[in-house]
Amino acid sequence: MGETMDLEAYRSHFEAVPGYLDFARYGPPSLDVVHNARTAMSRVMSGENDVEELREYERSALASVARLTGRDGPDQAVFASSTSAGLFQLAFGLSGAGKSEILVSPFEYPSNYYAWVRAAERGGPRVTWLPCKEARVTPELVADAITENTVALAVSAVDFRSGYRADLAGLREVLGDRLLLVDAIQGFGVVDMDWSQSDATVVGGQKWLRSSWGTGFVSLSGRALDRLGDSLTGPTGAADWTNFDETVHPSLATAGRFSMTNADLVAVARLAAGLDLVAGLTPQGIDHAVQRVVGLLFDVIEHHGGSPLIPLSREERSGIVSFSLPPHSAEDVGRALGSRGVIATVRADHVRLSPHATTPEDIVGRVDDALGSLNLVAH
């Protein structure tokens, strides 16, 4: 895309989804994503299967990833079909078994602890659980937990439950030369964060990038490339792999060594479009638009006596607004929202709202009406 745009121009790239406040679960794709998918599939369907032509999407997407994550170039990024797939690549590539350890919060989304536990079971660094009382991984907490055996911290940029936005710069400072491995699926494309602070930024594109399922990437620092091995390297992650000489070739020195097979180029085409739109409005522009609606939602929830899942300062907020409304159950709150056409995530003890830059502010009125109706019934 290349050029920046204003919010109105950005919104024109999407079809409106009235009442949709569930982007933390799935982000309905943009018109650009659908166009790229159709174009790529049409070439395949018609027999115009020029792989090199389709790989222009690959080159474009990797260049965008490098720019948006603060890397030196596209050779520091590789495609992943999901956040989970990218995290497993990191976990099995992490060197330093034996007495080494990786710090992980027990409040992480399962993708960000299954990978480390599975790798530990097979000789990787043991998992040391941070003594968290809530889903808030702070620099102070990590500093107290670090030992001489600590080689890395695995953390979410944004907590999937509460929306807590991690202090990546602060975590980077206390970790020193240790690896900062970031599950960024709930942050990338919705909050303005300095991703260059991380040694690995792992993203699935079906949420805030709005590129649908099967899209994602891993962006790696030079330090990560120096320390991560090649336990899950496939033929496409090796040098000269198409020289079919019945030998296992050396793994690439770049992020490409985390490739196990050829990328799905139709998925890559979708990812390229999603990344272009983030660059078009800019991460700062998206963050600003989202925080406007997030602030209004928090105000309405407070007005009706609701409580956030955990208290968050404005600097700690992201695109997620999770709350309860005593004495009403989360199921009742979700039902009231649904009757007003508001689509949200309803969990056992809270409701999660998650707007995007395309969310109109008037949706806050629907939430206000829904919560107000519950309080009327209660009185």
Structural commentary:
The structure is a single chain. Helices cover 39% and strands 12% of the residues. The protein has twelve helices and eleven strands. It has helices at residues 7-11, 31-45, 51-69, 83-93, 111-121, 139-145, 168-175, 222-227, 265-281, 283-303, 330-339, 363-378; strands at residues 77-79, 101-104, 126-129, 150-156, 179-183, 200-204, 216-220, 307-308, 321-324, 345-346, 351-353. The longest helix is centred in the last third of the chain and has 21 residues, at 283-303. The radius of gyration is 21 Å and the shape is globular. The model has no long low-confidence stretch (mean pLDDT 94).
Helix content: 25-40%
Query: Major sheet, described briefly?
Result: 7 strands, mixed
Please indicate the percent range of residues in DSSP E strands (runs of 2 or more).
Answer: 5-15%
Estimate the global geometry from the Cα principal axes. globular
Order of helices and strands: HHHEHEHEHEHEEEHHHEEHEEH
**Radius of gyration, CA atoms, in whole angstroms:** 21 Å
Overall mean pLDDT: 94
Number of strands: 11
Strands in their spatial order, largest beta sheet = 1-7-6-5-4-2-3
User: What is the CA–CA distance across the termini?
Assistant: 54 Å
**Which structural class is indicated by helix and strand composition?**
alpha/beta
List segments where confidence is low: pLDDT < 50 over at least 5 consecutive residues: none
Q: In DSSP terms, counting alpha (H) and pi (I) runs of 4 or more, how many helices? A: 12
Output the keywords.
379 residues; alpha/beta; seven-stranded mixed beta sheet; 12 helices; 39% helix
